[in-house]
Amino acid sequence: MAYCYEFKGFIPVVPEDTYVHPQAVLIGNVILGHGCYIGPGASLRGDFGRIVIGDGANVQDNCIIHSFPGRDAVVESDGHIGHGAILHGCTVGRNALVGMNSVIMDG
C-alpha cells in the first residue's frame, strides 16, 4: 500500500478497487473514487484543502496535487492526469486530459 498519512484528523479514503502504487503518497483530506489509478511518485497533499479524485480517474507517475484552505482540488470521473503534471486548487472536468508536465494553478 502507498504511504498514507493522517493530517489534522483527516485520513485518506481509498476504495478496495482503486490501485495506489506503493511509492505514492497520500496526505490528509484525500478522497479517491472507485476504479482509480495513482502512479508511483504521485503526491496528493490534502493538508490544506480537500483533494477529490472521481471514479475511474488516473493520476500518473510523479504528479503533484495540492490545494489551499477553502478550495478543493478535484479530478472528476475518468479524468486523466499525465506524468509529472502539477495541479493546485483547480478542477479538472469529466473525461479531461491534462498533458505530461503541465501545470494548472488555482481555478
From TrEMBL:
Q: What Pfam families does the record point to?
A: Hexapep (PF00132)
- Write down the Gene3D superfamilies for this protein, in alphabetical order: Hexapeptide repeat proteins
Please state what the protein is called: Phenylacetic acid degradation protein PaaY
- Source organism per UniProt: Roseovarius atlanticus
